[in-house]
Design goal:
The structure holds 3 protein chains of 3 kinds. Chain A has helices at residues 2-27, 53-63, 75-84, 100-105, 125-128, 183-194, 204-214, 225-233, 244-252, 282-292, 295-303, 312-317, 320-326, 330-335, 344-358, and strands spanning 38-43, 65-68, 92-93, 109-110, 134-135, 138-139, 142-153, 177-180, 218-222, 239-243, 258-260, 266-276, 308-309, 336-338. Chain A is α/β, with parallel strands linked by helices. In chain A, helix 2 (53-63) links the parallel strand 1 and strand 2. The relative contact order of chain A is 0.16. The chains are: A alpha/beta, B mainly alpha, C mainly alpha.
Chain lengths: 360, 261, 273
Amino acid sequence: MKKTMLGVWIAVSLLSATACGNKAANEGAPSSPNNEKKTLTIVNWKGYGSDDPEVIKTFETKYNVKIVHPYMASEEELLTKLRTSKPGDLDVVLPNASILPVAINDGLLSPVDTAKLSNYAAIYEPFKHLAENAKDGAVYAVPWVWGSTAIVYNPDTVKGPIDSVQALWDTAHKGKIAFRDDFNDAVMTAALALGQNPNHPSDLDAIKQKLIKQKPLNRTYWKTGDEFAKLYAGGTVDIGLMWSGQTAAMKKEGQHIKYVIPKEGAIGWVDNWAIVKGTRNPELAHQFIDFMIDKKFQEDWVNRGGPAPVNKNVTRTLDPAFVEEMGLDEKTIGKLTFISYRSDEEKKKWNELWLEVKSH
Amino acid sequence: MLKKTIGWTYAALVLLFLYAPILVLMALSFNASKYNALPFTFSLSWYKALAADTTLIRASLTSLSIAAGTAIICVVLAAMLMLWAVQTTSKLKGWIDALVVLPLTIPWLILGLSMLLLLSAAGIDKNFTVLLIGHVVVSLPYAVLVIKARLQSMDLSINEASASLGANEWTTVRRITLPLLFPAMLAGGFLAFVISFDNFILSYFLIPSGSSTLPIEIYASIKFGFTPEINAASTLLLAATTLMILLIVVIMRSSLKFFLK
Amino acid sequence: MDKKIWLMSPAVILLLCFCVVPLFIMVYYSLLSDGTRGHLTLQNYADFFEKRIYLKLTWKTIRISCCVTLISLLISYPMAYVMVNLIHSGKNLLLLAIIIPFWTSQLVRAYAWQNLLREGGILDIMLRKLHLIGSEPLGLLFTPYAVIIAMVHIFFPYMVITIYLSLEKVDIALVEASKSLQAGPLTTFRRVVLPLSKPGIVTGCILVFVPSLGVFVEPRILGGTEGSVIGMVIEDQFFEIYGWNFGAAVSFILLAIILLSMAVLSRLAKKEA
């Protein structure tokens, strides 16, 4: 009996060993001796500019480095990744204002030396002074792209022009609206409609009532940009809350879609690059960030349907009509309320409010 | 005869329901529109895109090998466990029954996160062994429950008869119990395989950085674009599986006769 | 002492280390006030029971899961019965045909349902061509029906398999014996076949009901504005806001519900057997 037991144990451990071995081989183990290339690990959303094969190839050849892209699925999850990874695992990450202050305060990021970034000077001035990106005079995050979350509609089926956020509350569009399933965007949009400060709303109860009033007008709430794009292309929805970047991409793919920054203003956001504390490649990390805010990259991406570039030299070379309609210019920046950091307490409250609206 | 016709019609209807969305996603993989828009325009562009997408292909291969490892380990462990369960008189049995279904009752999110925290507490890096263990833990209940459902309705007096005829235990297991259990082991293995293959959460938490599985790629792509490339990958996988199974059936026709009856 | 203990020890050790220990970690978190730090508190549980929405969502999720389990049973039992008793060749191929769809991601299938069910979608066009529906829109997408259809689709194959495996072993001799005793087909079914296939039914119900409680993908994609379920609350706590502790507490409450319903199920099964 002992022998059988041993046999089974060996079989099981062999199986697990081979299964793991296979995987290690798949990885193209970076430990092989003649492979002296450094690896730069970048955490970003999938399909979000930096993982374009052409872009990666250009950077890899220029700096003789291998780029690895583990993806993130949410900001909160990026924070978890930062907290649970070992020093040296990750090099460059893409946090936004919702987690930056926490990441900085927890000592998860290392300061960026802006003197090493040749393109830093070209960034729009307002973005260099975002409160969440710095601490004690040190810069921890470099703005990369920005955009707005505003209203889109189908000019063929929706009677326009639409210029107010109240359109989302207009019963004329009943059954054709797709509001966003996101507590932050929901509360901020309702605050705009009510004339409250979107970042510091004074009356959450009124916001809740306003959102409950909006609910029956919706066809659905959308969660991912992709979902909205498919519903819109299929004609299931005609009007909704949408990101400027995704709208630009849909336009490039031939969709008839109109983007409007309402007169009440809109939500703005900025995605920033930051360097992870304990990185083994600080030089390369800086070079990568500089490469990402370079005119060439930013211009290429916005022309492929990417979000708005932070590099002000890029906007000047674009088609003025496109810039105007998509709100890519400095004038738009002034109309937006950029999402600011919220405490866990506040996030929980907003999230619960949104849950109450959804299950009302 | 009428009974048979009704039976086949019913089975066909159920299969139609089962395959309807599968057929849709297959069709969409040949549709030119990125947003699955109709009318349908035939195009192979998503397959071309897939062929060029080494990340997606590598991720699919990783998923396949993890799932295969998981399935084999699960079937072995589950069969051992069940062989013990049928003959034991131990008081532990009730507890162990409960223990086995436990992973089924814990949301995978929690299981994955706790394992991750366990790793960081123990100072171990994320690695494929841990990932495989995680997959085995969540898939094992399926294998066990399927084998158990078979065992419970199996006539155990055969075992006793065999023993009374002088067969030693190992012979009984090998000649009687295992062949009887084989269909259930096959089904259990398949289930464990697919549970692991489609598992996103555990892989998400436990996979070493730099690697990914197919579900991770799929979930990561939905924020901006979940292109029909994924449909193309699914279609190819389905086609490959079906072919593989048919091939096995044809090659092993004689030895599998028992199961094809 | 059991000398065959080695047979079960690998599985048991694995489960103890990687399932029971994490479970305790989860309970511990559910009792903490702030992330991995903070003090011990019952506040997370109090929050759950004080606010009506969580109870409401839990109840809604249980209702949906019961619905899904029941419909799955209604589809699966006849299917398994047909496979065992009426189909003589290729039943194992049929079994494989039932497992193959699992090869596609749950998420991809959910989007396929969205495509199938929407107005102007494939089902809509087909039904219209066949004149099965008039001019009014299909109106299935973004309703609870859509969620239930997709969930049944994902889970019922588990039930077919477990019922099939237990039905297959029902001794034909017993059925014949019952027939020879002048029992009608219905009586034979009720008194002989059904009790014998009970283990498969119970297992199948567990395999459908339990994962149904934790689902969040299908309700979100197919349920429209009324698509909130408790699984989404848990997901939000981990992916949207830093609420691990509350998320763990909700998970634990869900776990308690599951264990309770499993106890009831197995009690029922025993009583009737």
